[in-house]
Amino acid sequence: xxxxxxxxxxxxxxxxxxxxxxxxxxxxxxxxxxxxxxxxxxxxxxxxxxxxxxxxxxxxxxxxxxxxxxxxxxxxxxxxxxxxxxxxxxxxxxxxxxxxxxxxxxxxxxxxxxxxxxxxxxxxxxxxxxxxxxxxxxxxxxxxxxxxxxxxxxxxxxxxxxxxxxxxxxxxxxxxxxxxxxxxxxxxxxxxxxxxxxxxxxxxxxxxxxxxxxxxxxxxxxxxxxxxxxxxxxxxxxxxxxxxxxxxxxxxxxxxxxxxxxxxxxxxxxxxxxxxxxxxxxxxxxxxxxxxxxxxxxxxxxxxxxxxxxxxxxxxxxxxxxxxxxxxxxxxxxxxxxxxxxxxxxxxxxxxxxxxxxxxxxxxxxxxxxxxxxxxxxxxxxxxxxxxxxxxxxxxxxxxxxxxxxxxxxxxxxxxxxxxxxxxxxxxxxxxxxxxxxxxxxxxxxxxxxxxxxxxxxxxxxxxxxxxxxxxxxxxxxxxxxxxxxxxxxxxxxxxxxxxxxxxxxxxxxxxxxxxxxxxxxxxxxxxxxxxxxxxxxxxxxxxxxxxxxxxxxxxxxxxxxxxxxxxxxxxxxxxxxxxxxxxxxxxxxxxxxxxxxxxxxxxxxxxxxxxxxxxxxxxxxxxxxxxxxxxxxxxxxxxxxxxxxxxxxxxxxxxxxxxxxxxxxxxxxxxxxxxxxxxxxxxxxxxxxxxxxxxxxxxxxxxxxxxxxxxxxxxxxxxxxxxxxxxxxxxxxxxxxxxxxxxxxxxxxxxxxxxxxxxxxxxxxxxxxxxxxxxxxxxxxxxxxxxxxxxxxxxxxxxxxxxxxxxxxxxxxxxxxxxxxxxxxxxxxxxxxxxxxxxxxxxxxxxxxxxxxxxxxxxxxxxxxxxxxxxxxxxxxxxxxxxxxxxxxxxxxxxx
Amino acid sequence: xxxxxxxxxxxxxxxxxxxxxxxxxxxxxxxxxxxxxxxxxxxxxxxxxxxxxxxxxxxxxxxxxxxxxxxxxxxxxxxxxxxxxxxxxxxxxxxxxxxxxxxxxxxxxxxxx
Lengths: 897, 113
What we know:
- The structure holds two protein chains of two kinds.
- Chain A is of the alpha+beta class.
- Chain A has four domains: 2-74, no CATH class; 145-332, no CATH class; 352-532 and 768-895, no CATH class; 553-748, no CATH class.
- Chain A has a six-stranded mixed barrel with strand order 2-3-8-5-7-6.
- In chain A, α20 (497-534) crosses α30.
- By secondary structure, chain B is of the alpha+beta class.
- Chain B has a single domain, classed as Arc Repressor Mutant, subunit A (Orthogonal Bundle).
- Chain B is 54% helix and 14% strand.
- Classes of the chains: A alpha+beta, B alpha+beta.
- The A-B interface holds A 4, 7-8, 11-12, 25, 28-30, 32-33, 35-37, 39, 58-61, 64-65, 68-69, 72-73 and B 30-32, 35, 49-51, 54-55, 58-59, 62-64, 73, 75, 77-80.
């Protein structure tokens, strides 16, 4: 037909309107022909009756011919499709209970898939919001000397300048350095991630500011660099989105910067979250010979048209090799790597493994939902066998019948898909609210939005689901030859055997899948339990922590740092509701800094071989506040200052490793960066006396061996970056605002960050492990419930179908208990097979999870836990139909013809 | 659909279309008349099945090659008469030329060498 379409539409439309006329015209035309034929036969000498039937015979199937002509005049395929839809909708309405269950099951299955896909789409699939993102590259260093051969290392300024001058693969290169800034003045001070960028940065990325301008050449020179471009976030926070912010001044790190531009909200690079951009000023030190070893820059480069990433990589590697030969002291073993910004971002998120697991889990949930639906349709179809047999006898082709059933499936699936989107919107909101373990996570959550990709995905999986759950029942239904269906009148005797096998297989598949999911979940739960276990060693309950990083020239003096924190702690202690408060450079679960030391009587041969351990400078009463047990000796007191003899406190692991079998109290260690001696042979660092030993506390989640740690008085070793730790009498979060006020009462320009409870800090250090556990848990839960519904549904159906048989058995003397056992045995055979299959498949999981997540696989206990749970639920699902079978009244059952 | 074996005397769809057009070149005619005419003119060699004739007529009408109107037959019955449109006449000319070329070519191949 093809090309005739446009021309042929109009007559069809016309006939559509004059439907009845088309019908009567056709009838009349063909009747005329028949009459003419009959007349001819009569003239040839046949009797009237014979003439009529001979004409009829010669004519063939009158109705069919009429239909074929009519089809030509109508939008045949469209109209039959509409018929199918109308009929399907009516069937679904008629079985409203089934339709409801089916739609809800599907909505759940499609909803969780859409939710996780939205996250995948946001984190892995979306192109970074820069011009021609495919050509935007990150050029990084490769440190071949490092144990892990890291290939995303930062770059030094001289290397960058040489790369830029010598490479031909790129049209331009820009360079950035991430930093933390304290923004103050006006509203409360805030610590914000910012980026120092070369003046051409925005041009290389091909992005324009929403208002104002970007950085000009020359503004990267010291003295001209006090200009800032704000992110949309910071602009709204600080200036309420007022365009008049341009030209105004904003206080950053205690200095005034002029606002020259604001970036649009869409400009956000997931791998480089930032709230402001200032010019990058490269110092003489950075650019000098020694600066080549100072690697702190990120290089953005735009690939020239026609250049491939591989070509660029080869060229950069050659340049890096030449630089390594020319500068062996700084560049030996250093190479260069080129990868696209998108690739860099995806790897950076580290979310691939987690998302792959989640995607597999939700796919499992959808499969289970489909299996349930397939079973539901199989059961319902058996009730419609008569209808279909009649339609087949009337001349409906197999394809036409299968299409009718598939149309119904697609209707169900699309209904489920629409509801599924609602489910996804809701669950996404809940999920994203929990992306809060650090600033990056919060920024990441903003990337995750439903877009057309997500909608297309939802529609696609709805249709795939329709095929999955609709095809098998449709084929099974239409395969039977029509006469059988009419003969056994819908009451399956042996004819339904094939259908039963399909139903059983589906249930076994469901059970196997839910076991698989359950085992997967329990592995993550173990990681979660580990978090709880790890918090032992101190009391994280009712503890509020916060972090302050001092900004401003005056705080370069250690004396001022000490004064600041001492005044703040004093104010905190005075707060009603505060039990105690203390300052510390680090808290548990925060990857403390490292320090080298020398143990008295054990000098190291070379400075590089000196031992090192975790280092904390803590205020008086630190151990009392955190409730880390004092095993020996004393806590830090107010008397331990820079003027008193230096002291140190060590943890148990330290004592055991460096003073085995000895009492460490009264021994001395020398703490400091190097073991060099000053003039006159005197050590730079004094010897500190060990005055106490405390219990071990974990530094990170999943830590298996405690690490040696030492603690020194904060007053003698102040720092510009420190934590406040406050033990409260009430809900610690209610003390958050008083804590901030206490800090600002001392200096209103300082930002207070990471205000959170100690318990939260522990969970956050797991970077969303608990989220992963929660998600896997809820998916496994949904899967289990769906599988249970599946077993229950199929068994109920089978029992219903065998009511007749049960009646005969009972009439012949079978006891109700025996009948019940029969049904339960039937059901549990399915459960057993499914569990065994699922369990066998799950044995591969622990290794897979351990390889992708730093979760050690400790015991077979978690594996053993899943099968009993499923078996128990299976038993319950079998019991209900079994009891019904037991209560069959033989008389009623036999009359059930 | 599948491939149907073509018996001698069966009419291919395109050929039937051409014969209908040619028949109507003589003037308007109803379906029965067309079938009878082809049957007689071919000395009973070609028999047009009703199952093929009417779909063909409707197809040609839909393509705008034929037009139809209701009239009265010789024996005073109401009948649907088909006639060629301008497009139909053009189509017939084309198909005839094509047919002549084709049959000449086929005849050359079938001739004993």
